[in-house]
Amino acid sequence: MTLMGNMNHATYFIFFCFFLSLHLHIHPFCFCDRGANIKSKFRESYLLPAFSVKPILSTETPIPREKLNPPTPSIYLESKRDAFSPVLLQFCTDPKNAVTVIRGLAGSLRLNLGLFSTKSLVEANSEHAVEVRTQVQQPADENWNHSGSAQTWPCESSRSHTTIAKYAQYQASSFQESLQVDIVTMSASVGSEINSISRLTGKTIGKIIKFGTNIDLSDPKRWKLQLQELLKLPAFMRVSSSANMLSHVGQTILGMNTVQLYMKVPGSRTPGHQENNNFCSVNINIGPGDCEWFAVHEQYWKAISDLCEKHTVDYLTGSWWPVLEDLYRSNIPVYRFIQRPGDLVWINAGTVHWVQAVGWCNNIAWNVGPLNAYQYQLALERFEWNEFKKVKSIVPMIHVSWNVARTIKITDPNTFKMIKHCLLQSIKHIQILRDQLVSAGKKISYQSRVKDEPAYYCNECDVEVFNLLFVTSENSSRKTYVVHCEDCAREQSPSLSGVVVLEQYRISELMNTYDNFTLRMSLQRSRLPLSQLLTDI
């Protein structure tokens, strides 16, 4: 009893795991004799069981048709003080608000969005690479198949590459064409006639357009002025901040913890999606034209995924544009709104959305990971769903969770509980796997991490590999090595011969991090009487 009483939580837990490994008849997983093949694998969720901070939204009760287009939450900022008010952060990150349009942001913060105009971009770096998506121009609420006989969900486009200078030329010439009076007049006079004919014949008339997407603005030397301008934003919206989980990844994730630019002509489409690992996103319209947005609360993502499957397109990896009538028939409310130049759109965690340019415009965007329970839960849920669907999680959530635990003091009890549980599950996974390897006679070599070393993913299945790396030599002469997860390593070599197992953290290091990760009481809680604090804890 004295021994147990002196143990901290992590030490006790490891002792408990070891105890179970010695008593196979009471352990729910199969441990084998030394030297034998492992017959089963420990699998347990990193999510806290029977605990959720998601809002309770009824998806069963039929919603009247007139309420299937709810008003979009929006805020108009009149001053810099408004922008830095904690109320804005609370409103944007409220789990009930799928999306927030923040109008007047550029004016209130005196943002020089001209730095992101096509002219400025050409002057700054004309030969910079641009990914081009060739698409068919269609009305924002329509998506016709190739024959024009029916509306459909797949939204295909072909990919090519160009430079900022060349796309700028295309963007400008497209705009000039639109200004030709005879074309404008003709379109106005016969547009309705063409539309009615196309509906009758089942064919649509859409020209081919090019969308300049995924333009990387991460280089701080090339884009110094642009990136400095974004430091005027409130901390929770910035590309990097201490309270942003994506600032604790320890590596660059292009377009997530770096800025990306989009150059558009009317009809340019960003198909339906949730952000990588359900992270929040920030999108600013540079102008001069508008963008039209469609957004659906995270609560309905599975229903939309089922509709994708019905229309033979993969929800996670495919390109799709929802047919609005299909959503309405499925009792799914859709936010629909216009983003004007200078407007910032905040996409909350897990929100499903798709966007189409109304005019000629540029947009800048990036992701943020507010350290709140809703964001963390959704990120971890998608991390596990991705593993189940064999899709790579762009954000290495186990790696991030440990980094957050080492560097951040959490004041929210729910966020703390979830991260603490994830760490405990991580230790459990590592300890049990480690014991299995040792009992099978497999050597484990310690190799501590070095500064700026990235998170690792399995070379075959893309699952995150944390701490215990299964490494094989890809090219012995060049000394290049490949990391695998345990499953894929055993597929190549069931006995793990030719596989080196590296351990990047000693269990004692992880246990210390776990024990030192404690809930920090906020100023409000610390003012409570001691008796009240003890009751709450």
UniProtKB/TrEMBL annotation:
All copies of the JmjC domain together span 222-385
- What are the required cofactors? L-ascorbate; Fe(2+)
Spell out the subunit comment: Interacts with TLE1. Component of the MLL4 complex, at least composed of KMT2B/MLL4, ASH2L, RBBP5, WDR5, and KDM6B. Interacts with TBX21, SMARCA4, SMARCC1 and SMARCC2.
**SUPFAM superfamilies for this protein:** Clavaminate synthase-like (SSF51197)
Record's keyword annotation contains Transferase? no
Q: What is this protein called?
A: Lysine-specific demethylase 6B
Q: Which GO terms describe its molecular function?
A: chromatin DNA binding; histone H3K27me2/H3K27me3 demethylase activity; metal ion binding; RNA polymerase II cis-regulatory region sequence-specific DNA binding
Provide the catalytic activity annotation: N(6),N(6),N(6)-trimethyl-L-lysyl(27)-[histone H3] + 2 2-oxoglutarate + 2 O2 = N(6)-methyl-L-lysyl(27)-[histone H3] + 2 formaldehyde + 2 succinate + 2 CO2
Q: Which UniProt keywords apply?
A: Chromatin regulator, Dioxygenase, Inflammatory response, Iron, Isopeptide bond, Metal-binding, Nucleus, Oxidoreductase, Phosphoprotein, Signal, Ubl conjugation, Zinc
> Which PROSITE patterns does the record match to this protein?
JMJC
The terms describing its cellular component in GO are: MLL3/4 complex
